[in-house]
Amino acid sequence: MASIMSDKHERVRARVREAFVLFEHKEGSRLVDFKDVPVAVRACGVNPTSVQLNLILDQLAALNAESEATGLVGLENFELVVSNFLIQQEASLFRDDYHTLLRAFRAFDPEGRGYIEAETLRQLLSGRGEVMSEDEMNKMMTVAVDEQGRICYEDYAQRLANDGRRI
Predict the structure, then answer these.
(1) DSSP state, 24?
(2) Which part of the chain is the EF-hand domain (predicted)?
(3) pTM, entire model
């Protein structure tokens, strides 16, 4: 049993390190800008709430305060905080399945066209619930929107639900 847990912990730590490297301040610096932490956490394959992200940011800020406060987060602190968060909060971080996502997207497509205009979704996501930042919105749209400015939600729901990531 201990071996299974250590394997899981090592897989989580490896995924956290991979996400960290994507947002590294300067290649090889082992530092990430504090403002990139939320996106780096999401790159681990989870979608934490604002409350959960604030908890992570608070823990990183406290650890950063002990060192030289540069506005950057080191790999060791990021790995420690985010790995522990992913392991401890696993039950609250499960992704929605394809059918749940599909029902959600269909709620915004009353005509049943099979797509949502990108601008419509952008307005919804920037004004309701947990508001996405402009940077997060642009990154999502880069992946979701086709050449005609539409989000074909069956394909996008499939991509979101089955990207191969597991905690």
Answers:
(1) B
(2) 96-131
(3) 0.60
> What tokens appear for 131 in the block?
């508001």
Nearest to 124 by CA among 139, 112, 135, 108: 108
The tokens describing 70, both together, are: 């540069």
**pLDDT per residue as tens digits for the range 68-113:** 657 899 999 999 999 999 988 876 666 677 888 899 899 999 999 9
d(CA 155, CA 157): 6
30 contacts 75 by C-beta, under 8 angstroms: yes
- The amino acid at residue 91 is A
> Is there a contact between 148 and 28 (Cβ–Cβ < 8 Å)?
no
Question: With b meaning 16 or more CB within 10 Å and e meaning fewer, what string describes 66-91?
Answer: eeeeeebbbbebbbbbbbbbbeebee
Residue 152: name the closest of 95, 107, 105, 96 by CA.
Answer: 105
Residue 89: strand, helix, or coil: coil
